[in-house]
Amino acid sequence: MLLRVKSRSFVLCLFAVCIFSEFPNDVDGFEPISITTGVASITAIGISTLAANFGSIKSKFLESCDDNWLKKDTQGLKNDLSTRLHGQHLVIENVVKAIQAHKRHLPSKALVMSFHGWTGCGKNYVGRFIAEHLYHQGMKSKFVHLFVATHHFPHASRIETYKDQVRDWIKGNITACPQSMFIFDEVDKMPPGLLDIILPFIDHHEEINGVDYRHSIFLFLSNTGGNLINRKTHEYWSQGRKREEISYKVMEEVVTTGAFNEKTSGLWHSALIEKNLINLFVPFLPMETSHVKLCIRDDLTSKGHEISDEIINKVLDELHFIPEDSKLYSKSGCKRVSEKVNMVMETI
Ligand SMILES: *[C@@H]1O[C@H](CO)[C@@H](O)[C@H](O)[C@H]1NC(C)=O
């Protein structure tokens, strides 16, 4: 009897826990068999629990497509945009609403938003905030994909290769995680027609070959329509009206006209527009001095510098403002603020 027990305990030791060897086998009144059975079942439970938890343990350390790594922090997104994006009343309201709707309900299609405006008005910035509030890893998440036209698709002649690539990437990545996000930057510099490749993925299909594309998000960033947006914004200013009076409807009209008609828009006569597959056109208005000042303050704060009018004015002096007569808008928005702040801080 004892021998049998010992050999069993040896086997158990091999497995994992050597609790049994701690027990003296020859203690009076002990029933070795029940101990063995007990330990065996404890070990068995242990191993199976371990196996069952392995997935979730792994998911705690390795980014996975689940609630440990995905989030729906639309309130946080709203707060961040409200405090850190300057002069863009049309962006905050509409982008947050669109994402809330897409995340709250079972979406009927992928969410597609097209951001329009001059450089430095915050298009990339908003893309980053969205990533940070939907993925714990933010832009570094393996579920967030950034394509920059001049970097990823520089040669118009290779459009067919690019098409195959983009199609495979989207398919592969959404198969791995339906909540993937794709950001296409510099859409206006993409070979015309390339974007149409994503058409089937963002249309109203429940699934294609077993893959559900409806939970994904696509962002298109471009300068397209930027001049028209600026002209309209300036028009309001000339009439003595506040820019906050500009309604979404007015600007949407301006932007869609530009997107559809500007030959270099990347969306020029694109089926994406014709078929109404873009959920939201988002206009970014040109930045006035007061907005740029806020960007400078943010930058100084984030770098731990003191904020003074002297420094702010010095940074402003480094930037270009247009048009010639009124010098109302920063030519590069807030884009070069950080770099100019560094420069000014060097000389102080
Ligand atoms: C996902 O997209 C990236 C590009 O961001 C690509 O390199 C990768 O191969 C894609 N993954 C799959 C499984 O297709």
In short:
This protein has 348 residues and is α/β, with parallel strands linked by helices. Helices cover 50% and strands 9% of the residues.
Q: What are the secondary-structure elements, in order, as H or E? A: HHHHEHEHHEHEHHHEHHEEH
Span of the ends, CA to CA: 88 Å
Radius of gyration (Å):
29 Å
Mean pLDDT: 87
Query: Uncertain regions: pLDDT < 50 for 5+ in a row?
Result: 1-29
Number of domains: 3
How are the SSEs ordered, and which strands pair?
Elements (H helix, E strand, L loop, with lengths): L1 H14 L16 H30 L12 H11 L4 H16 L6 E6 L6 H12 L9 E5 H4 L6 H18 L4 E5 L13 H4 L14 E6 L3 H13 L9 H14 L9 H4 L5 E4 L5 H14 L6 H9 L3 E2 L6 E2 L6 H11 L1
Parallel strand pairs: 1-4, 1-5, 2-3, 3-4
Antiparallel strand pairs: 6-7
GO molecular function: ATP binding; ATP hydrolysis activity
Family: Belongs to the ClpA/ClpB family. Torsin subfamily.
Keywords: ATP-binding, Endoplasmic reticulum, Glycoprotein, Nucleotide-binding, Signal
Overview of the structural elements:
The structure is a single chain. With 348 residues, this protein is α/β, with parallel strands linked by helices. The protein has helices spanning 2-15, 32-61, 74-84, 89-104, 123-134, 149-152, 159-176, 199-202, 226-238, 248-261, 271-274, 289-302, 309-317, 337-347, and strands spanning 111-116, 144-148, 181-185, 217-222, 280-283, 321-322, 329-330. Strands 2-3-4-1-5 form a 5-stranded parallel beta sheet. Strand 3, helix 8 and strand 4 (217-222) form a beta-alpha-beta unit. The N and C termini lie far apart (88 Å). 2-acetamido-2-deoxy-beta-D-glucopyranose binds next to helix 7.
